[in-house]
Amino acid sequence: MNWKNLVAAAILATLPFAAGAVEPDEVLDDPVLEARARGISKVLRCLVCRSENIDNSNAGVARDLRLLVRERLTTGDTDEEVIDYIRARFGDYVLLKPPFKPETYVLWLAPAALMLIGGIGVIGILRKSGGTKVVNELDDDEKRIVAEILASEKKERV
Amino acid sequence: MIPETGQFALALALAAALVQSILPMLGAARGNLLWMRSARSSSIAQLVLIGISFVALMRSFVVSDFTVLNVVENSNSLKPMLFKVAGTWGSHEGSLLLWVLILAIFGAGVALFGSNIPDALKARTLSVQAWISTGFLSFLLLTSNPFARVFPPPLDGNDLNPLLQDLGLAMHPPLLYFGYVGFSIVFSFAVAALIEGRVDAAWARWVRPWTLVAWMSLTAGIALGSWWAYYELGWGGWWFWDPVENVSFMPWLLGTALLHSAIVTEKRGAFKSWTILLAILTFSLSLLGTFIVRSGLLTSVHAFAVDPERGLYILGLLAITIGGSLTLYAWRAPAMEGGGLFTPISREAGLLVNNLLLATATATVLFGTLYPLVLEAVTGDKISVGPPFFNATFIPIMLPLVVMMGIGPFLSWKRTDLKGVFQRLRFLAVLMGLAGLATWYVLRGGPVLAYLSVAIAIWLLLATLREWTVRIRLLDVPMSESIRRARNLPRASHGMTMAHVGLAIAMFGFVGSSAWKSEEIVFVQPGSIIEIAGFDVRFDGVEQVRGPNYVADRGTLTVSREGEFVTTLYPERRSYPVAQSRTTESAIRSTLAGDLYASLAEPASETASDQGAWTLRILYEPLVFFIWMGSIMMIFGGGLSLSDRRLRVGAPRRAIKSKIAATPAE
Amino acid sequence: MIWVLFAGLAALTVIIMLDPLRRSEAVAADRIASAVTVHVDQLREIDKDAERGLISTEEAKAAKVEIERRLIALERTKSTTGHFETGGRGALWLSALMVPLIAGALYIQLGSPRIPGVPFADRKEERVEEAQIAELTGRLLERLQGDPEGGQTEGWMLLGQTYMRMGEYADAASAMENVIGRDDATSAILSQYAQALVATENGIVSPKARTAIRRARELDPTNPAATFYEAIALDQAGGSEQAHDLLVARLEQAAGPEPWMELFVAQANRIGEAIGREPVSVATFISATDAPPKPTREDLAAASEMSVEDRAAFIRSMVDGLANRLAEDPDDLDGWLSLGNAYRVLGETDKARQAFETAEALAKNLALDDPRKRSIREALSNLGG
User: Fold this and answer.
1) CB under 8 Å to B6, separation ≥6 — which residues?
2) Which value does ipTM take for this structure?
3) Domain boundaries, position B604
4) Which residue in A35, A46, B283, C354 is a FRET match for B634, CA 20 to 30 A apart?
């Protein structure tokens, strides 16, 4: 263990290799199928990357998955069948859009719930504040005080 | 000597922050003018000292002083000067130093330019700012010292990640931090107001310029980060819903809500406690972002355990800041309600809905970002939350918001005659529908949502411009009169128009580049021609070129359209020998209509590179330029608002009654 | 010089902090009075809006009444606030003077005032020297390798020592390996070879090194370096008590003050602390009469033994750096392997295990016969995980 290697490794570790991911030899001849494959690739996670889909990743795993997707598509699977097939093999972690299941109820429902609670709150505020109350004129006493304030402000300005 | 000076200056700054945490606060409580004023001088002292420290670190980078560990780890004598400078904030330690520098800039900014703010409020605000400063300076000095030394020095440094050697990214952290950390001063104002027990229209006005500055720089930071991802990563995308992006986006969303709710507080004296809460939460999200990015929590729950000291320290800071301020809020805010009344159809109600939608959108992003971490920590289950989730939840919230943005400015305060508004907008609604259909007729392809979004963007654009013309009575009165009216209109009003139009324009870019992009990934040999979006792109081969600290394979692409020469593109693949790594430099031809984007991937195979065969990725992304243009307009709109005269109205200074106070204040 | 600079900086800070004393004008902006000014400005604004026809006169009137009411409310609170005083100079002085004191105390803990700053441009000589040394060692290596006799023993040792100084421990060990089997291999040669091996392994005494140490001690039982590494080997093998005894025994044999004694004492105390022995000091082992001046720290540093510690600290920081980077990008399998190995060598088994476990998770998708999988398994079973 030489520290120079260590440092080189450390720097390499920070690098997502930045390059186009899908390679030409993967591309299917049928443009419709290919478009579907690209669509599916966008919702599958590259298992070893940080929140990256397999369409963008150049990791080996991602390539294997892309090829698998295309293989299933050419054998006539529908999009759902392909995704289910991959999910069955790799678990829910592979889906970038988490499935709706007990563990994710909170995730999926929280925004709607918040919106609902907030909405009720907003309606409450509107109710409370509602009513187009006529604004009373100032009485003479109040007018006098305002006039004094305005006068003293004007004096300040000079 | 210089690195040590930097370190000593940092220690002095911490001590000054400690004093500033206490003395002005006491002064404000007792009405002691001298102690209150000490906030001003210690803020300036902090800025000077942290500035010296930052310059010391920067100089260590510039002259490649490898007795500083941070320089060894993040720089190299062969690196181009610009990136040596940028290396200053490239590391964990350096970026935290930048963080506290910006904190000090905002503190000193209020000290120097906040002359319209009453003394006690200013003293309290700066004292709160010093609390944050004390927390982060001690974090910096005790766990992440940027001036840790090595002696004898190694012969050369280890370079900075070459992917970070990009102008966009070099500028990105400073701008993002400027926005992030800028919200600290808004937070300090809010906490000071809670301590003082008074929030009113005047408070809202005094805080507004600082909120605007923070918002503008956060907008700029996010846009620049997005631009960088687009330019450098080579995937042709500009937003990935990556956790790092999300943590900067959340304060932006909530900060935008704050900007709008503060208007109600200023004009009608309403929404006071809500505005305060938003100010607290916005900065809390900024802190959360700093914590998440800096603790390593983001990538895996386990990474946190690798270096728990730093993580726990920031977690502690986070808990104290957020917990403390929310407790104070729960205690003081209930006494603050009141304010003007309004009906369900009014500007106030519109802004309320705006805030509801923005807050929900923020919560969506927050849940999506943190949920996988929390779930894994609690149950051990691993799930992924990626772009499909965010697109499915975020867009349905944002589209109604944008529709509202078109209507909102037409609503008047307190109560509005809805009929009148509809009359004005009816024609625009029809126009929007027609425009959506026309887009569909021309393009045909793409999802329905895309057409809906285009229609809504057109709606926002037209409605905003219409509102502006109503204000200046364009065509109703002679042109000269309209111009005079436009001049007399408060700058903030022009600012709003500009920012809203900017969003509409950016939206065209968002939709265009996501829904209608075309892509070709092919093997090419010299002479190959690729057809994309009406362009013919000829691959002329690859040559080797040398840069200051890299060597590159540079491809040459000749682009033509219907036989006419258009441009030549030079995508590169760079190798950095010192860092032993590679990057892709895409070549982009940017026009208003769309970007032609080429990036060079690997040689088609090991042996094939001799025969000149390469993998080439070419994209055509319509309207991407609109995103950057729209962002610039939003920032510019913020700037216009900032220049509004009304934001500088404030404290008249009066001679105090007795020079030597005979009686204590309370 | 540096202290003068610090004093200047501290003085500057105090001067800035004392600035309020200079501004003695007794004017202040009261919170309520300022709010009044803002509200009055709002009234004017409404008038203007009405003038422009942006709001109806009705609306303007209502809005003005609302603000006027707030003005009145402000006016009523005015009487309860707005007292200012200008005393408290003492507290200001005190707090300003506290700043350099606090900072000084902090700095003493954290700083390294004696390390100079060394810009890259000032190190031409060093670089030239380095380049020359590299060239010379290259030539020496060539000559030694080309020698049909196998090369002079002194030559190989010189090469090995040069590599040591350059920090190329593995190269040093392999250079020395050429001569340790020879008849003229002295105890010193063997202990230097052992040192190179230990440095290569970041401080771990491998079996190979242990053999070399044993032979060095057979040839010369008093060789302090061999004794030192023997003690380390014993300690690493769990024999801390024997290690401590060995060090103390050798110290007791010392004829007079020797440059290596401080290192021995430090090591003995490190081991002794873990097993509950009383700390020892160099003075105990030197009779007062024949003691020439004690070796200073600088001497020891010159003896290059100190730099081993520095180097260890440096390696430590490199490992931390790797850990941090992996925290930001945890998908790098090889990075985790390196980190695990590094921790293992440094003796931090818990961290090592964690790193290997992370690597194991990443390796899940590799082919079954990938060699890395095996090495992770082996490492984990060695670490008991």
Assistant:
1) B52, B53, B54, B55, B56, B57, B60, B146, B147
2) 0.85
3) 518-625
4) B283
